[in-house]
Amino acid sequence: MSGIHEFIANEVKNNDVVVFMKGTPQFPQCGFSGQVVQILDYIGVDYKGINVLADAEIRQGIKEYSNWPTIPQLYVKGEFIGGCDIVREMFQAGELQQHFQENGISVRAAS
């Protein structure tokens, strides 16, 4: 396993919720990354954002790691959930919140 895949595996294993994204949670650099951040912020989940634009190796490595061609990518408890469309659909259906809760990750109650 290359160094970059090791780094990715480590981040995914050691953080309950990780988003590999363009930009940072404070300053998303693309609309899709921004949407995922908005959804996670809305449901009040703690997560780690990893900026793939800061490192071309990570940007390429994460696509190989997940076998998924696009960024952002959401991982929960080491499991790849999906990209923006999947996250948005799961959120709208209430499945994302449920998935977090089933994995022992607290979400903010909907107001």
UniProtKB/TrEMBL annotation:
Binding site for [2Fe-2S] cluster: 30
A single MF term (Gene Ontology): 2 iron, 2 sulfur cluster binding
Ranges for domain Glutaredoxin: 17-81
Top-level lineage group: Bacteria
Keywords: 2Fe-2S, Iron, Iron-sulfur, Metal-binding, Redox-active center
Database matches in SUPFAM superfamilies: Thioredoxin-like (SSF52833)
Ranges annotated as spanning the membrane: none
Family, similarity comment: Belongs to the glutaredoxin family. Monothiol subfamily.
Name of the protein: Glutaredoxin
Organism per entry: Rhizobium lusitanum
Organism classification: Bacteria, Pseudomonadati, Pseudomonadota, Alphaproteobacteria, Hyphomicrobiales
